[in-house]
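Reply to thread "Modeling small-molecule complexes from scratch"

Following up on the discussion above, here's a worked example others can learn from. I took a protein sequence and the SMILES for flavin mononucleotide and predicted the complex. Inputs first:
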Amino acid sequence: MDFQELIEQRYSVRKYTDEPVSIEDITAVLEAGRVAPTARNSQPQRIWVVTKPEDLAKIDECSPCRFGAPAVLVCGFSKEATFMHADERNGDWCYGFVDGSIVFTHMLLKARDLGLGACWVGLFDGPKIQDALGLPDDITVYSLMPLGHEAPGNVANPRHFERLPLEETVTWL
Ligand SMILES: Cc1cc2nc3c(=O)[nH]c(=O)nc-3n(C[C@H](O)[C@H](O)[C@H](O)COP(=O)(O)O)c2cc1C
């Protein structure tokens, strides 16, 4: 699949089989995130790989959006490691969410490249997940990535096909 096909064919997967994701595939997804650009190369991303049934059950207590995936990447950033930009107009500005989003997008596309399903999940109770998994206080969890083999017959949600035309989102000056 070339890059254009990859970005057009990726969609949010919300139905998975029970088949575990191999360590090789999870590692390849993580590796795609590792090479992502971050502000000042600060690399504040911190990721927890959750595959044990008891930990997946904890995720289910904190989010309705695991969708039965056999693996979840809990994605956070270190507040200490993140680059802070002193912006005169807006005050100090934290790049953690921006850096994290780039890392996440690299991993989302790599998952698709490997034939795996994944989804960006922003609907979760952050403090609860932090306590449940025993994550350090320095971490802000910004998203979850359910990861797995897409259930046979699953298709993209209709919203996937609803993209605004460039005229509505872009201004050529
Ligand atoms: C920041 C962000 C948060 C999202 N949170 C959720 C979520 O909590 N649950 C969910 O099912 N999908 C979530 N999504 C997926 C979007 O609904 C989805 O990307 C969008 O509808 C376009 O569909 P597509 O990914 O299939 O192209 C999120 C996506 C983004 C970028």
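What I'd highlight from this example: Residues 3-151 form a domain with the NADH Oxidase fold (CATH 3.40.109.10). Helices lie at 3-9, 23-34, 53-62, 96-113, 126-133, 166-169. Questions welcome below.
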